[in-house]
Design brief:
This protein has five helices and eight strands; from the N terminus they run E-E-H-H-E-E-E-H-E-H-E-E-H. By secondary structure, the protein is α+β, with helices and mostly antiparallel strands. The protein binds coenzyme A.
Length: 171
């Protein structure tokens, strides 16, 4: 568990289902995710089950808790890959940045990786801005990488190297 000024970052629990379903069923939060907003609670339940069962050798992923509720998640969900999502009620307050500033050092301490990678839709301005402020740099682009519903989406690939994270992250 990691405590920051406004957040608690901790492992997922099945009791997060109701709170996290609010996030993963939200169309704005899911606009650039790799799937459509979850309609069924069972979809969030499957995601939670995979988070709870995730191997500590390959992932370091956190539920973001704020004022007693799970409001999103952030961390390394698969070896070397960063992911994050917050309910829109909590956007624009620096909370995602606060979560990642705590999660990223933890990821580099716990996992034997040389770099963290992100795969972001080029229209996802908020995520690109956040990653850029955290020191991630663009390393490539590709078109039509994922089909979400009936819409093909593109990818911007970004990386943060182990060597540069310390100087990139704020104190
Ligand atoms: C990506 C996402 C987490 C970013 O959330 P966010 O709240 O914009 O990100 P930050 O925590 O960095 O907050 C930055 C904003 O808070 C403002 N802010 C307010 N108080 C602040 C503080 N104390 N510290 C820092 N920023 C603060 C900043 O000015 C900035 O606002 P701006 O974008 O209007 O300039 C959010 O948009 C999201 O959940 N998106 C959907 C999921 C998604 O697409 N994930 C990525 C898939 S690859």
């Amino acid at each position: 568990m990691i405590t920051t000024e406004r957040l608690v970052l901790r492992r997922a629990r099945m009791s997060d289902l109701e709170d996290l379903h609010r996030v993963f069923s939200n169309p704005a939060a899911m606009r650039y995710w790799d799937s459509l907003p979850y309609k069924e609670t069972e979809q969030t339940q499957r995601l939670l089950e995979s988070m709870v069962a995730a191997s500590p050798e390959e992932s370091d992923d956190f539920v973001i808790e704020h004022e007693g509720h799970a409001i999103g998640k952030a961390g390394c969900w698969r070896l070397g890959e960063i992911g994050f999502i917050l309910h829109p009620d909590h956007w624009g307050k620096g909370l995602a940045r606060e979560a990642l500033c705590a999660a990223i050092p933890h990821v580099f301490e716990c996992l034997p990786i040389d770099r963290l990678e992100a795969d972001v839709d080029p229209r996802n301005d908020a995520s690109l801005k956040l990653l850029s402020r955290l020191g991630f740099r663009e390393v490539g682009r590709a078109a039509r990488t994922i089909l979400v519903g009936d819409e093909w989406c593109d990818s911007v690939y970004l990386e943060l190297s182990r060597a540069s994270w310390k100087e990139a992250l704020p104190d």
